[in-house]
Every structure is written in structure tokens, then in C-alpha cells.
Amino acid sequence: MATFRELTTLDGQTWHLPDGWTQGRGAWGGLLVGTAVRAATEFDVRAGEESSPRTVREVSIDMLGPVPAGDVPVRVTALRQGSGTSAWRVEFLGETDVLASASVVLGQPRATDVDAQRDARLTMPESPPWRDVALVPLGPPMAPVFTQHLEFRPLSGFPYQGQGSDVLSWVRFPDGEACDAALALGMVDALWPAVLTTFTEVRPVATLTFAASLLVDPSTLDPDAPLLHHGRLVAVRDGYATETRELWTPDGRLAVLNTQVMAIIR
Q: Which of 41, 120, 160, 179 is the most buried (most CB within 10 A)?
């Protein structure tokens, strides 16, 4: 099986999206995010003059339409290249319009003497050690096609139970691939939307906007250990759901913080 790095690496200005990594009619959002992050990172390295590459700090993406499997044209544009930070736009193109548009911000380390996770309200949820949680195979027809490539150890917040509970699950890629920014930021999109826990029947949902911050050095993440996903529904209004997602390391560090806005299609 191809690694996440291979799946998210451009061939020139083309992204080869294979079958088996889709969600509904288009690419799994996590793979889309990972590809945008990797493209921006690689272009930034080529354009930069620093001895050490800049680190991904933030990614936001508007998912305007499904990105189908096959060869997808990609356009990468520099928005800004400053002395400490740079910003790139990565667009996934359809035949006549833009299917997804991402903004990726990278930056050099700055004042590290103030490093802290200040918000005490964001604490790691209680969970048994991941090895004590049963592995649950997922895949079609009960789950999107891409889920067959990941390992899930779910704890709470199951779809279509009508309870509206938080989604909690350990998740990882099973091949022990070294973690980088693209993989960590893509992984936050692996679990089902928290709004599905409020439904009692199947209803289609699609992500419109995705914004995530990478809060740890991904090279410090154990490639053999999963991350704890915590998804929370914030609000639903006029058929649009807003939720937050967090990824936590087994030793209690907040690795990724994500907000998504989703459309409840019907």
C-alpha cells in the first residue's frame, strides 16, 4: 500500500488520486489537506534561502466541490514570502472551476521563552491506554472507502444514535510511517462528523471549510502510537454544523486543533 507521503506528493503540477481513498464522490478531506500542506512545504523549501526550512503553522481550506479520483491539476501560488513567515495558496482544479482552495502558512520559530498551552479548558479527555481499547475495522459499506486504510479504536460518540455525544477515538495509520505536518493535519479529518451522533437516520454531510493549527513538532510524535481524536459539535443552524476537533498524544500534548463547518445536505 502506498504511504501517506506518496499519496500526498505532487507529480509536477498534478495530483494522482487513486481509487480507495475517497469519501462519497470525492477525495477524503484529510488526504486533500495533507496534499495541500505537502505542496506548500515543498514549494516553500525551493523558494527559501534559510538553512532550516520553515514549519507549517496553519492550514485552511475551502472544499467547494468533490475532487474526483484520477489526475487532478494543482496550482500553487506564493501569497507572501516575508523574513519570518510565508503563505501559499494551493488550488485543486476541475475542468471549469476550482474544486478546493487551501491557504498554508509557514513560519520560523520566534520567541520560545513564552511557549505554553494556556487554555486550561482544552484538556485531554479521559481514556484508557490505547492498547487496551479494541480495534474496530471500518470500511464500506458502513464507512467511507478511505477508512479501510486506517486503524480506529473508538470509545464514544457513534453515528446515528441520536445522543449528540462527543466523538472520541484513537486513530493512526497502521504502517508506522514517520509523522510530518501533512500527516498530522490530515489525520484530524479521519473520524466521522460529531453532528452525525445527533441523527437517528443516515443523512449526507459535506465539509465546506476546514482550518487547523499544528501545535507540536510532528517529528516528536511516536509513529507507532495513535492519536486521540476528540470531536465536539458546537452548533447547528440553517443546515450548517460547526464542530471542533482535537488530536492528543498519548502523553497528553495537544497536537492539532481544528474547526470545520459542514453542510447537512438533506
A: 179
